[in-house]
Design a protein that fits this description.
Radius of gyration: 27 Å
Structural class: alpha+beta
Strand content: 15-25%
Largest sheet: 9 strands, antiparallel
């Protein structure tokens, strides 16, 4: 082809298409990796996977076992959730109980991430009727089965995802990349946990019959002091 001012743009487009085709064939697209924490709306705590492979969301304190790595799998919408400290994959076992496996178990350790009313939900690739979920005490939902809309159990499938190392430049980069998942900064997460702690303390005091401490009133009697001076 004769190189002219008019043929150069066509060659550029053809070269880009050729490169993209080579990438697709070779599967050389890098996966997206993020270090996050998952805050469960029902238990008001972060998900953690301990060294024994137990999966809970029952601790409102910051814990190194709550650091999770979410990795997308190339072009697919599938992702994996990996516990950094315990070095285990978040998976479903044969009884559809959430466990932490040291070895990757295929579809049982893969999830789809859905957005529902501003929250993230994670459903199993192996069986899309099973979701990651926890009750108010931070224990797993049995089988993670979703119920009809309006059920209280629906709230227990909701998660907020936030970065442990939050910064404005990183936040802007994610928005520019089209990532609209429900992520919140650490200081917002801290306020959520403080609110939960205050609510628990108020309910405990109410159950024990305790009243909140009140500051004693200071009364000023200016008339009496003026009579004494006279």
């Amino acid at each position: 082809m004769l190189l002219t001012v008019y043929t150069l743009p066509q060659l550029a487009v053809s070269a880009k298409l050729l490169c993209l085709l080579m990438v697709v064939i070779c599967g050389a697209v890098p996966s997206m990796v993020r270090s996050v924490r998952l805050y469960n709306d029902c238990s008001s705590s972060d998900v953690r996977v301990d060294m024994k492979g137990r999966v809970l969301a029952d601790d409102d304190k910051s814990d190194k076992f709550q650091n999770l790595t979410i990795r997308s799998l190339d072009f697919s919408v599938k992702l994996t959730i990996y516990a950094e400290e315990s070095r285990r994959y978040l998976c479903f076992n044969k009884k559809w109980k959430l466990v932490g496996f040291k070895k990757f178990k295929g579809a049982m350790c893969e999830f789809y991430e859905d957005m529902t009313n501003g929250y993230n939900r994670y459903r199993s690739v192996a069986n899309e009727s099973h979701f990651v979920g926890f009750n108010k005490r931070g224990r797993q939902l049995r089988g993670g089965l979703a119920r009809q809309n309006g059920n209280r159990r629906e709230k227990c499938l909701n998660f907020l995802k936030f970065d442990s190392d939050f910064s404005i430049p990183n936040h802007n980069d994610k928005l520019a990349g089209g990532n609209h998942s429900a992520e919140v900064p650490p200081y917002t997460h801290k306020k959520i946990l403080e609110k939960k702690k205050n609510t628990v303390n108020s309910k405990r005091n109410k159950h024990l019959g305790k009243k909140p401490d009140k500051q004693p009133r200071i009364r000023h009697n200016h008339q009496r002091s003026s009579k004494r001076l006279s």
